[in-house]
Amino acid sequence: DQQVKQNSPSLSVQEGRISILNCDYTNSMFDYFLWYKKYPAEGPTFLISISSIKDKNEDGRFTVFLNKSAKHLSLHIVPSQPGDSAVYFCAASESGNTPLVFGKGTRLSVIA
Amino acid sequence: SQTIHQWPATLVQPVGSPLSLECTVEGTSNPNLYWYRQAAGRGLQLLFYSVGIGQISSEVPQNLSASRPQDRQFILSSKKLLLSDSGFYLCAWSLVDYEQYFGPGTRLTVT
């Protein structure tokens, strides 16, 4: 039973446009959500996070939106750049000391 | 600053051979440590995590085991590798907060 789902395995976007990556979760006890970016043959790197007490968090070109009633979060990248091409993982946690639960990832390709 | 090391970077092992992957963290004390495997189409699968020396929690029953002999050392082992053990193995650490920080990974191919 997947608690964190990224239903789009891949996404292709033109350079300069907005990339929207989606993530759904089923566990209502999750209270913290994170996005990781992963290049091939490298470990994932932390990108941005959001606590369940907020509905939006912004960091430069990256914004994460959380809709708790829909159990849905999304990552917006504006403007998209070729260097953003990577696999993006959504992750969730019930508390600060439990392992993160990851989605299967979405491969983003930004086309120049 | 904190750094995390994993080795080897790549490994090719025959079926039935043993395995030992090592992970060490520098620049922090008493971290939580994690082993993940990324297999094709399956995302990041948590294998083991540890909140202290000698404390190991297994998330998925399988052919692998983990040990934490020192505070900042985490070892992933197998006595006899299976073909299905092939994958990209990632070690990660965290303090008592939410962000986990990953190592560079080990690509294991079992032939």
Oligomerization: heterodimer
For the biggest sheet of chain A, the summary is: 6 strands, mixed
Rounded radius of gyration of chain B (Å) = 13 Å
How would you classify the helix and strand content of chain A by structural class? mainly beta
List the secondary-structure elements of chain B in sequence, H or E. Answer: EEEEEEEEEEE
What percent of residues of chain B are in strands?
Answer: over 45%
Helix content of chain B: under 10%
Morphology call of chain B: globular
Radius of gyration of chain A over alpha carbons?
Answer: 13 Å
How many β strands of chain A by DSSP? 11
| Unreliable residue runs of chain A | none
- Biggest interface, which chains? A-B, 22 and 26 residues
What is the helix content of chain A? under 10%
Distance between the termini of chain A: 38 Å
Number of strands of chain B: 11
Distance between the termini of chain B: 38 Å
- Give the overall shape of chain A, derived from the CA principal axes: globular
Poorly predicted runs of 5 or more residues of chain B: none
- Please, how many helices of chain B? 0
Structure, explained:
The complex is a heterodimer of chains A (112) and B (111). With 112 residues, chain A is mostly beta strands. Chain A is 0% helix and 54% strand. In chain A, the strands form two sheets. In chain A, strands 2, 4, 5, 9, 10 and 11 form a six-stranded mixed sheet that branches. In chain A, strands 1-3-8-7-6 form a five-stranded antiparallel sheet, with no helix packed on it. The radius of gyration of chain A is 13 Å and the shape is globular. The termini of chain B are far apart. The chains are: A mainly beta (112), B mainly beta (111).
